[in-house]
Design a protein that fits this description.
The chain contains 11 helices and 22 strands. By secondary structure, it is of the alpha/beta class.
């Protein structure tokens, strides 16, 4: 739904302000092994401009895509560049890989350069910090804390697809019934924290107390990658560790965690735009090629040894609002690239499946359809190929959607559910009651399908369907319907 390592010595040398070639070498303590290093060189300079080069060396796991970020402190502004996709917002400069140089093996380097303007007076100050895919370069990373391990009892089961069912390791069918836990998509990028409300053991136990077996967790790609627009305490390693802790806590209470990419990068100001901001501060029509494959590569590498975790590739695609034809919209959905009406390069569902599977991850993957995941009419025709066969159709429905009736569900959802597992990742209504979701749950129950209600947050009806008035599990009038229904499903 839309809404609201060890330390090392770094020596920088160079005579800044001289016309001509100067190098800013990176020197680290002997024996140090930074996750990445960046050499920044001013190769030419004149009164109001300069030329610079950067060389990036990746010392960690191989990358299938890279993004370099740094900040200027002397009023400089990039005007053009090469061997990378250069952009600048305020003082923050971003360089993303081109299609031909995205792969960066362990120990490999890549070089790029740019031209920039600068104030006639001033020192052309050298950037002091560089981040590669959210990781700070030229210093060793702090030792990663050991992953939080849930207790042996009560853990959520490993899942995979068998025909049109989700099954556990023994082959028993697992229906996903539960809630969304909003917050991770917006709090961090707004500088207000990571989660909206408590996610401690008591809070997660309350979700399980409703007899839910699944919790969907919306995420923000810029926060996960630790991009420069996100406050450090809420992004990068801190954000990733917070997600890992929540996943472990959910699994400890028998809840299947569904990690959903909710807010992404890319400027869109067309039909139904949620914001004009290029940053991940609202729902965009499609994921972006610049960061989203890197996001899913990182997430998949983090959780590929835990098949209890499910990946929801992109919350609510709506390329159909940007183009006039359904064919173009579905092609954009699957293939990405240059899409009609969308000004940034799109990552299609095929790109995202490839990013996940490229890590060796065999986790179940969800892909929602068009019209904010409400339209699955051509999902079977355009579904991306998944080499593991663990692809699931995702659907969202609210009382105000186009496909919100039994006749539509019978004609468009039933054929999909006959071939692949179908999960309603969001169900809800804006009436502060539960008569509509009661209808949805009955239709899905009758067919043994899965559904997750929006949302386990203490909001009011004016800001979205809220299931609870307190994180101890006290239901709203809307939430009472789901709580009582889930408890009735489980003996």
């Amino acid at each position: 739904m839309r809404h609201p390592s060890r330390s090392v010595l770094l020596v920088v040398a160079g005579a800044v302000g001289l016309v001509g070639f100067m190098t800013i070498p990176v020197v680290t303590a002997q024996g140090a092994a930074p996750a990445c290093s960046v050499e920044y060189s001013v190769t030419g300079q004149w009164d109001t401009g300069f030329q610079a080069a950067v060389t990036i060396t990746n010392n960690s796991a191989a990358l299938s895509g890279w993004n370099l970020g740094f900040d200027f402190a002397g009023g400089q502004e990039v005007t053009q560049g090469w061997n990378a996709k250069w952009s600048q917002s305020g003082t923050t400069v971003t360089a993303g890989n081109e299609s031909y140089n995205g792969s960066l093996a362990t120990g490999a380097s890549v070089s790029a350069g740019f031209l920039a303007s600068r104030p006639a007076s001033g020192s052309n100050a050298v950037p002091t910090s560089f981040k590669l895919n959210g990781t700070t370069c030229n210093v060793d990373a702090e030792p990663s804390p050991p992953p939080t391990q849930p207790p042996a009892s009560g853990t959520a089961p490993a899942l995979h697809v068998s025909g049109n069912r989700l099954v556990d390791a023994s082959g028993a069918t697992r229906r996903l019934v539960g809630v969304n836990r909003s917050g991770g998509e917006f709090m961090c990028v707004q500088g207000r924290g990571i989660w909206d409300g408590p996610v401690d053991d008591t809070a997660i136990k309350a979700i399980a107390g409703w007899k839910a077996n699944t919790v969907r967790i919306p995420l923000n790609e810029e926060c996960w990658l630790g991009l420069s627009g996100v406050q450090a305490q809420y992004g990068g390693t801190n954000y990733v560790n917070a997600v890992k802790d929540l996943v472990a806590r959910a699994e400890a209470h028998g809840l299947t965690p569904v990690l959903d990419l909710h807010w992404t990068y890319g400027q869109y100001t067309g039909n139904s735009a949620g914001c004009s901001d290029v940053h991940a501060t609202c729902q965009k029509p499609m994921p972006d090629m610049q960061y989203t494959p890197s996001f899913w590569t990182s997430v998949a590498n983090t959780f590929k040894n835990d098949s209890a975790v499910i990946f929801d590739l992109f919350n609510e695609p709506y390329p159909d609002r940007a183009t006039s034809t359904a064919t173009q919209a579905w092609q954009c959905w699957r293939d990405g690239g240059t899409c009609p009406g969308i000004g940034y390069q799109v990552a299609g569902m095929r790109d995202l499946v490839d990013a996940v599977r490229g890590t060796g991850a065999k986790n179940v993957v969800l892909a929602g359809g068009l019209a904010y995941s409400n339209d699955l009419s051509q999902w079977l025709t355009y579904r991306p190929s998944d080499p593991t066969g663990d692809l699931v159709a995702a659907y969202h429905v609210y009382n105000f959607n186009s496909c919100a009736s039994e006749s539509c569900w019978n004609s468009t959802l039933a054929p999909v559910a006959a071939q692949v597992p179908l999960v309603a990742g969001e169900i809800g209504e804006n009436t502060c009651s539960h008569s509509f979701v009661d209808q949805v749950m009955k239709w899905f129950d009758d067919r043994g399908l899965s559904y997750l209600s929006w949302t386990w947050n203490t909001w009011d009806c004016s800001s979205g369907p809220s299931l609870i008035s307190d994180y101890d599990g006290t239901p709203t009038s809307y939430g009472t319907g789901l709580r009582d229904h889930l408890r009735a499903l489980t003996p």
